[in-house]
């Protein structure tokens, strides 16, 4: 059976990793203190804020053979927030909602803070 597939009495359900990444990204940007996802330019090392339509570019997702999900988020946080608190909030929200959405276990969530922005 493919990664991301589950067998039921009625057949096999396969979830595209892109769908999981998009859902996880939309959950993440709703979290307090997260400005958005970041894309890091390889040539100059600068992080730029991604638009809502491009959320998945700031997320790496891996599904193991036993359907355990590992997510890595590249985020930009609000200036003045406690990064540890924001990260804990993001991890708990994403883990709960992605597990509820997919029926798979989220094994690991990595967060890479790529920048800080002042919000009006």
* C-alpha Rg (nearest Å): 15 Å
Instruction: Find the count of extended strands (DSSP E, 2+ residues).
Output: 7
Stretches where pLDDT falls below 50 for ≥5 residues? none
Whole-number mean pLDDT: 88
End-to-end gap: 49 Å
Strand content: 35-45%
Biggest β-sheet, characterized?
5 strands, mixed
Backbone shape? elongated
Q: What's the number of helices?
A: 2
SSE topology string:
EEHEEEEHE
Summarize the structure.
The protein is of the alpha+beta class. The chain contains two helices and seven strands; from the N terminus they run ββαββββαβ.
Kindly list the characteristics that best describe this protein.
single chain, 120 residues, alpha+beta, five-stranded mixed beta sheet, two-stranded antiparallel sheet, 2 helices
Describe this structure in words.
- The chain is α+β, with helices and mostly antiparallel strands.
- Helices cover 28% and strands 39% of the residues.
- The protein has helices at 17-29, 83-102; strands at residues 5-8, 11-14, 34-40, 47-49, 59-63, 68-78, 105-117.
- Strands 3, 4, 5, 6 and 7 form a five-stranded mixed beta sheet that branches.
- Helix 1 (17-29) crosses helix 2.
- The radius of gyration is 15 Å and the shape is elongated.
- The N and C termini lie far apart (49 Å).
- The mean pLDDT is 88.
